[in-house]
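Task: fold both queries, return tokens.
Query 1:
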Amino acid sequence: MVGLRALSVEAPLTGGGFAGRAFVVADGEGAVHVCGLDGAVSQRKLHEGAILAMTTDEKTGAIFTAGDDGRALRTLAGGEPEVLHDGSKWVDTIACSPRGAVAWSAGKTIHLRQRGAEQAVPVAAPSSVSDLTFSADGRFLGAAVYGGALIVPLADPSEAYLLGWQGSHLTVGFSPDGRFCVTAMLENALHVWRIDKPEDKHGRMGGYPAKPLSFCWTADGRYLATAGAEVLVMWPFTGPDGPIGQKAGVYPAEQSLQARTVASRPNSRQIAVGYVDGSVALFDRKTSAFLPIAEPHEAGAVNGLCFSADGRWLGFTRERGVAGLAELGKG
């Protein structure tokens, strides 16, 4: 049985994530809304403009926010925000690593602060940065930029290098085993590189009617689930070259709706899918069935999905100010 709670905010929602025992959402007016798993809800103003990006560390309860007021913040429940960055340019992106590192970008500069360091190290990017993410093993920071994916080795950030492919790259991710990097592009396609042989082993993953901006690997790392179509599209990562030269599998739901977001449930064969009409479903790879989680909503498309680390809770945000928190129980 699925229990569902909703939170209405009079501002666009720009991010969501689990921090401690709460689901936290950020809005376009500088506030975060903390939705406790016990039902308590609180609000906190952090920025003097829109929060452009947010990420969380569920284990420590830290909330990292990036704003158009030029600041990047780290905030813990009940504590004063720690100012990571205060500048004249918008802070466009922010990411944190389970190993304690944090990175953010402003203009063409990435700022990387490693665990235990007092200061961030600047890394020059070839363009403004659309997205940042750390690999699961903590070895790399990836940045989506014009012309490809910038890879920053945490062991030596000065040795950053570009996985090149012409065009605008908007989101970036690493396979769970750290062997592949994938970006979603301004054109309706993904691009993949095998990190140890990027010049020889890379390829386009196309055929989408819309931009596949959201993607995630299954919990076992064998497939990449993607949005951007009226079916759930999944690419195999089972061979030495991943999806290069392979075909994707497609999984239609009963209703033909464009998928906007996807998220993989930890320790499970299930994948959450958020749609343009505001509805959410849970796809089961074992049965290929879609279980409805949330109904369509006038607040618009689902622009964010995430699971708690134990997989018992699913949080999601809709573009025009309505978030949801679903209690799924044991997977």
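Query 1 returned. Query 2:
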Amino acid sequence: MGNPNGFIQVKRKVAGYRPVNERKHDFSEVEQTLDEQDRRDQAGRCMDCGVPFCQWGCPVMNNMPEWQDAIYRGDWKSAIDLLHVTNNFPEFTGRICPAPCEHACTLNIHEEPVTIRENEASAAEKGFEFGYVKPIPSGPRTGRKIAVVGSGPAGLACGDLLNKWGHYVTVFEKDDAVGGLLRYGIPDFKLNKAIVDRRISILAQGGIRFKTNVHVGLDLSGSEMLGQYDAICLTIGAMKSRSLDIEGINLNGIHYAMDYLTQQNRIIHGSHVQEHMLIQARDKDVVVIGGGDTGSDCVGTAIRQGAKSVTQLEIMPKPPEKRNSDNPWPYWANIFRQSSSHEEGCERMWGILTKKCIGEANRIKQLQIADIKWLKDNDGRMSMEEIPDTSRMINADLVLLALGFVHCIHEGIVNEFGLECDHRGNIQVNQDFMTSKPGVFAAGDAVTGASLVVRAIAQGRDLARSVDAYVRKI
């Protein structure tokens, strides 16, 4: 703890975003950076608590006090080395993680937590800038071959560790480029894809083999793969989008959020999309149904495409500005938040039920919506009730469904192997991440349901430990 009075002497200071009038016209990253002295001062606010609740709140159990102190002292090598002990990809989580660590930070009792996420991103960038992040040669090769299906954060974390431990790792990706959700699910204004490419290059130089445009279960059968590899790791995500069971939902102009975001990312990546396939917001009244991060990403993308208006509908009530008594520190704070995209121009509506899609010539033109209230019974179960006389129409030329995901895609490898799934449709695994098919493991969103990138990384790391133990015994 370099500065025992840092949290008293220095106020929390965030880097903030580029000016709205500048950033909403491009897809460059919106977040700014502090100068080095400010960043070191912010790291010096860490109290090195006897019980680091920040670490408790972090899915990968980052050693926050240690690397905050390293940043404060300007020891960037120690900072990135300490981060890599628990987190394979701090440059990703430092940009896109909602930072449960900050919610658990002791200073959040007074709503002034350490800027842990931004500090993490700074340590990662300094690590790359000074050449501290290098390919790590594996240990002596074991001769064991492991296939990782899916190149999102869980698959990359798993493959990274298994390769370092001496196994031959091949990562299969159904798309044309590696990265999964990081590549095609998250807009460039939050995560520039050069950041993804930089890490993939490090992993490839370290010995991981990547195969793109291979849809395992369709292009390559699971049985073929089992004959070639000692273990298979399924990190295929949870990409089965949730829809609405309402009249008119199949009208033209209604799209899943992930189809919209993926297409825009592909365009930025250099892909050509035929005119009749374009999902374009320019000069349209855009309605995003769903109030989560994916919905926010749709808002920012529609604004950059030149939407006439953007409205975001959320079925849940508006969260409070401050924590309620039943939501105390150090738990995740269920409070009102505004993303950079919301700041750029968006009407947000809470407690809204979407009742009907109304079209003209088979194309969406309006949505029928109504206000709802949420009721809680004696057992704490929530139910909604439409408020009388609130039904109304809103204009909608483009509707984006950002309602989350049901479960992983079953068509392909899951069905081929006949894997057991839980009641929600996620792949069922035992305590060692083994599926119902011997030698086939699974982790990440395919097992937990859609969650955070940092949780996927944590699951990928745990998966690697189990697979390592398994292949060393066979």
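Both queries returned. Flag for query 2: The chain has a mean pLDDT of 96.
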